[in-house]
Amino acid sequence: MQAQRWAEAGPFARPRWFALLEEAGKQPLLACASDGAKQVCLPLEQQGAGLASLTNWYAFTWSPLFTGAAPDPALLHELARDLARRSRRVVLDKLSVEDGSAERLAEAFRRTGWIVLDEHCDVNHVLAVNGRSYARYLAERPGQLRTTLKRKGRKVEVTLSQAFDEQDWAAYEDIYADSWKPEEGDPALLRRFAIEEAAAGRMRFGLARAEGHPVAAQFWTVENGIAYIHKLAHRESARPLSPGTTLSAALFAQVIDGDKVTLVDFGTGDDPYKRDWMDEVRERRRLTCLRPGVPANWPELAKAAVRKLVSLALHR
Q1: 174 and 213 inside one domain
Q2: Does the pLDDT value for residue 4 go beyond 60?
Q3: In whole angstroms, what is the distance from residue 203 CA to residue 220 CA?
Q4: Which is more confidently placed, 289 or 8?
Q5: Residue 27 and residue 33: Cα distance in Å, rounded?
Q6: Which residue range is the domain that position 82 belongs to?
Q7: What dihedral angle (degrees, nearest 10) is formed by the CA atoms of 279, 221, 267, 185?
Q8: Where, by residue number, does the polypeptide cross the bilayer (predicted)?
Q9: What pLDDT, on the 0 to 100 scale, is given for residue 150?
Q10: Separation between Cα atoms, residue 222 and residue 252, nearest integer Å
């Protein structure tokens, strides 16, 4: 497939990302179709009695791999027909709405005989920079955030790096373990991803120290004019210093004024603190595609029909 397409697709829509998942223990099933230079591939995995998107909790989105400006509709239809011979159920998760991914895939499966249950699954907070400088952007942030930066910004020392450093990463892992965050999903995979992003020049890493001791860390990447905020954590004991806020501000300044990004992507989840930094919220959809002629699918289809009737009654 055309390598230049993958270079424009973002961190979670290129072959290397799915290869990392395989190296971490996933068992990919790649459903691919081609017509000359046109190619489409759905990275999937077996999940229970059906198939599902090949993904994990680090990924912001899931989408097909494809050549050209968009997946060829005829090839998507061909894949949907072929999958009907292999599985009674296909679940496609973390689908973007803004680029048409959710709509295209829903149409392909519906037109080939599947019943598609389309539902909200998550949200994605983003910032469109719109040519602003960091100073102008900061001036438009909530007053409480600006006051926090003014009062506490000098209480920690911030260092930014674009290279992977073993000691810095060990500090991040120690901070994460001492933070409010849940247990890390796959630290070995995240570390491998960070190493590769740094080697490609995409890594943006920040540490905040109080009296020389690391108290907050963040891992971002930048590519094709977009900054992705992957991980952030601070020690609970350092909360009064607001080290995460100070560190975020330094990284926003770096990507806006230094890297000249046009968009900052804060990933999935509706954490309240994201609203202080971001201006827009985008939806993520989940498609549950079911073969109507398979008895094993009937209970799920019946439940979906009841939910739809209840929803219609409530909105009358």
Answers
A1: yes
A2: no
A3: 6
A4: 289
A5: 20
A6: 3-124+282-314
A7: -150
A8: none
A9: 95
A10: 11
103 in the same domain as 216: no
pLDDT digits (tens, 9 = 90+) for 291-306: 999 999 999 999 988 8
Question: Which position has the token pair 């509706």?
Answer: 270
Q: Are residues 151 and 95 in the same domain?
A: no
Among residues 245, 230, 235, 254, the alpha carbon closest in space to that of 277 is found at 245
Average of per-residue pLDDT values in the chain: 94
pTM for this one? Answer: 0.93
d(CA 194, CA 296): 42
Say whether pLDDT at 99 is over 60. Answer: yes
| Residue 304 region by backbone torsions, left for phi larger than 0, else alpha for psi between -120 and 50, else beta | alpha
* End-to-end Cα separation, the chain, in angstroms: 50
Q: What pLDDT digit, counting tens, does each position of 24-71 carry?
A: 999 999 999 999 989 999 999 999 989 999 999 999 999 999 998 889
62 and 118 together in one domain:
yes
Top pLDDT among 313 and 70 is at 70
Mark 66-94 as b/e (b = at least 16 C-beta within 10 Å). bbeeebbeebbbbbbbebbeebbbbbbbb
CA distance 109 to 51: 14
Q: For residue 310, what pLDDT is reported?
A: 66
CATH code at position 155: 3.40.630.30
